[in-house]
Amino acid sequence: MKGNWLLVWSAILLAPTAHSCPEKCLCHKASKTADCKNRGFTEIPARLPPEIQILQLQNNRIWRINQNAFTATPLLKILDLSNNSLSSVAPGAFQKLRYLQVLNLTRNLIHYIENKTFSFLPHLKELDLSSNSIIRLPETFGNSTGNITLLSVKHNKLQKMERILLESLPNLKVVLFKDNPWQCNCNIFGMKLWLESFLYRGGISDGIICSAPGVRKGKELLKVPYELFGACALRAAPAPPASGPQWPGPEQRGGPKHGPHGEPADGGRGGCEPKARPRPVSLRHAIATVVITGVVCGVVCLMMLAAAVYGCAYAAITAKYHRQQLAPVRQHGAPEEKEPFQSSMA
Hints:
5 helices; alpha/beta; two-stranded parallel sheet; 11 strands; nine-stranded mixed beta sheet
């Protein structure tokens, strides 16, 4: 009997703590919100109510997210982690949040995003990565992320962005690129093509402003003429090796070599910067044109020379023929011309 009472009291004492709000947070049952902002957390707080749909964790000192951090809150729809100390996000950190719609990671210290970091978030619509120190984005955010409609990467350190990543987000409506050191060379040519198509379809963007090379600094990428990217296809598709042809795209990973600060190794000139020498293909075309023109002109000249020789020969033969015809006439006509002279003498 005594043992039964102990079990009852234990259940009574543990029941509130199982679904209670963390000590430093304020939980609102009506709005299903847990307000944990400005509380000095360094990790995701434990013992959050499982029914919450909005978790506010902005303005803390959270520096890491464990893979099981959100196991107890599977119904979250809005997660705000802005203004914390996150330097990286482990792939799969948010995979338990299948109903998540808005993820705010602004104003952290994130340097890069790994492939498939946001996998298994089929309802994610807004991803805000602005105001970090991101220098590289992956080729994909992860499986089941095709429903993202808003993506913000402004105020970072991005020099390029893979076109394949943008194409993996077919439902994008708004994308923000502002304040990044975009390198407007061959590595960004794919983005130019994608952005033109995106805007044509009715998408909204704040545009891409070039930071380098120097001749394009401050210019909008969409206003850089195609002619300045004319060498990109040639640089991206070198002569195929003997084993078989290989045709990398304009955004091949090797790309032009860069210096320690992401500047082209050829003295700061972009990969597509016009060169003093003509391109090899254009030179071959020019030589071929000159050779063909010369051959045609030579043939025409020979034909004209043959016509002139033939004309001269024909004229000479005709003149000779006329002389031969006139010679007998002159010979027979001589006596008749002398008779009046002789008769006059008589």
